[in-house]
Structure formats: structure tokens, C-alpha cells
Amino acid sequence: MKPNWNIRIAMAVLAVLIAFRPGVGGAGHEQKPVGDKLEVLFVVDETLSMSALDYAGVRSRLEGVRQDLTDITRALPDAHIGLIGFGHDAKVDLAFTDSRAAVQRAVQRVTREPMMAGTGTVMDRPLDLTRTVLADAKKQHPDRRFVVVFLSDGENTRKGAHQRSFAPLAKYIDDGAVLGYGTSAGGRMPTGGEPPWTFVRDQSTGSIALSHVDEGNLRKIAKQLGVDYAYRNGTGSLTPWAAALAQHGSSSSRDGNEDVELYWVLALLLAGLALVELRLDVLAWREAKEVAR
């Protein structure tokens, strides 16, 4: 009996297909984006002192804030972003969202509060609102990681005011930073409008008032929150830091189900053909044995 070449060719084809481990269900599935498990809340000081012109030379502190916000959000394109601004009061300027258009608009709107709105600054002004926002978000998304970034010069200007501790927020926070702006030498604060400016004056002396960064207070706030402190003076980007956050908050699994492998079906077919081929070989051997008699 001659060998059945159709069966042998079919077996060879099946062996090649099995080597490619075919499957279904993978088409259209993409890796989850890096940083998709992050909720990032910015808490931004928008008081009069944040308009002082001592960031990176003669730029406004708030210019530095907007640049840092832009760098962080660009490095976290898939995180949910929220923003609280505080001056004479605290307000939610942006509820948590993954819309980058909304985030960009919120960052562009980060400006100093009106000249006459201030009644003296205490850094704990956003404390209660921040706790409420974080607690509500934690209830809604207990599986997500929460990052808080506090951006300020740390300067308390209300006489006799006591700054409450930020420690109650620590239990809601997985990571974050306190970023400081301004100089110890101090910066002048424009009264508003475009250059040439007039500057805010000290009512007690009549001379131009200077605002100074309070790094000691900012470091204290960072310690209470359980995060790092970084001084910002216009040198160095926050992109690497934000990228590290994204790596810690990423998910590498696929959306939906994994591919269903089908190579085992081909393996069964190959085994079946192998049995057929074996049976034919046995029959051929018996036939040859009978002829030999």
C-alpha cells in the first residue's frame, strides 16, 4: 500500500499552524494606558503673594505654578485630574476629570484672586474642602491611587492666625508633593494690569511690600501630609517625577478578556491524522506480510 501523501501534507500544514499558536479575541484590545489608576488633586495658592515677581528672576510665582501644572498633567495623560484653588476662600476649580481640554482650561485660569479680596492668608484655608473632596472620591473609587500636590509660597499673613495641621489628610493620600515658590529675599507684588506696574505697599510703612517664601512652613505641611517637599525656582522639570507616579499607578493588563488560544484544536486534528496514518501503516504492514507468505 502506497503512503497517503494527502494525509502527510495535511499533518505538515497543521504542525506549522500550531507553531504560530493561533487565537481569537485579541483584535481591538489595547494595553491600558499608563497612569490610568491615578486621581491627582492639585491644591493651588492663589493669594496676592503668589503674584510676586521672584520666580526664575522676575516672573510671577503663578507663572511657575502654571508651568509645573502643565508639565505634570502632560506626563499623566490618562490620570483623573482635579484642582482646588484658595485665596480668601477655597473652591473646586475642577472636579476630577480625564478630559485634557478641561484640565488645560483650568490650568490657564489659575490666577491671583482680586486685589481687594484678600483678608490675610492662612495656609490651612483649603484643608476642610480638600478633605471632603478626597473622602468622597475615595468612596467612589476605592481601587484608585490618590496623589495630592500642594503648590504655594507657604506664607501666612493673617496676624495671630493659627495654622491647623494637614495630618488628617494623610490617610487619603498615596503619594504627592508640596511645591514651594518665591525667594527668601522677597518679591514685589503688582497691583494688577499690565506693565509698567505699580506695586502693593505696606500700609504700616508706605514702602513697597515684599512677599517671602516660607520653606519651613512648606516642609512642615509636607511632613504632615507624608509627602516630599521641592523648591521650585524655574530650573528642572517635574516630568520625570510625574512619569514615576504614572509607572506606579499603571495597569499592564488588557481591556476585556485575554485571547482564546485555538492551537489545541489543531493539535487534536493532527493527533487524529497521526492515528489514521498509523492505522494505514499497520494495514500496509499486514498486507506486505500476507504477500510474503
TrEMBL record:
This is VWFA domain-containing protein. Residues 39-225 form the VWFA domain. Pfam families: VWA_2. Gene3D superfamilies: von Willebrand factor, type A domain.
